[in-house]
Amino acid sequence: MEAFDQVATALRRARGVVVLTGAGVSVESGLRPxxxxxxxxxxxxAASLATPEAFAADPALVSAWYDARRLAALGAVPNAAHEAxxxxxxxxxxxxxxxxxxTQNVDGLHRxxxxxxxxxxxxxLTVWRDHRSGRRVTPDPTPFTAHPAPGPDGGWLRPDVVxxxxxxxxxxxxxxxAALAWCDLxxxxxxxxxxxxxxxxxxxxxxxxxxxxxxxxxxxxxxVDHRLTGPAGVVLPRLLRAVxxxxxxxxxxGG
Length: 255
Ligand code: APR
Known about the structure:
Order of helices and strands: HEHHHEHEEEEHEHEEH
Low-confidence stretches: 250-255
Radius of gyration: 18 Å
Oligomer: single chain
Helix content: 25-40%
Mean pLDDT: 95
Number of helices: 8
Largest sheet: 6 strands, parallel
Shape: elongated
Bound molecules: adenosine-5-diphosphoribose
């Protein structure tokens, strides 16, 4: 049986579905990934932008880069992949199952597509915090007039994201690990699966007995049971139609 049919069968049987997404799921919304030929880190050292040390060394540079990404994310529109995952959540929950979407993305597009059960493992670009007090603010959707921008308590604003060398929010990790206890199908969508601890969730889910499935335009190092190769905005709506019927895919993805 073809991988697609095996995955459709596993999804039809699943009572607990967890999805792990990465930057690839937002590529079809026009947002750059981090790795690969068009990635932010192509020819650029991530440590020079996405670390506390980089912010300490050049807060204006780091603030400007994240502000530009914040505005790009606010200007972007969820694509067929985001919408298929929001639909999948509704279908699984309406059928009495459990669902959780774990995202490494900080662009907010999953929630804007209607996903509700979302854990942002790496934080959010739309929330910033005072680098001294930690107090969080949601800046207006307009460019900062100064970089770094002043924080509410005398510090500078920094994005409320997890930088390299920083730990993930405890709550987010706890929610992810708790979900693995009831997960019987893990979909790994649009991530290069090289950044930890998020990438470790794939092995943990498999170890806990879940069927693991990768949806990506290419194979990654993730050790999964099945690979569905193609753009997430094409593969996911097709999978939903195969499992939940013709009206459950995304209307834009070719009926
Ligand atoms: N559909 C599916 N997959 C895609 C698509 C698409 N349309 N376009 C690209 N991809 C895949 C790429 O093949 C790659 O495997 O998405 C993946 C994107 O990988 P990365 O750019 O490494 O993004 P991600 O895995 O989310 O990075 C993890 O690294 O830089 C940090 O904090 C940042 O959260 C980020 C983390």
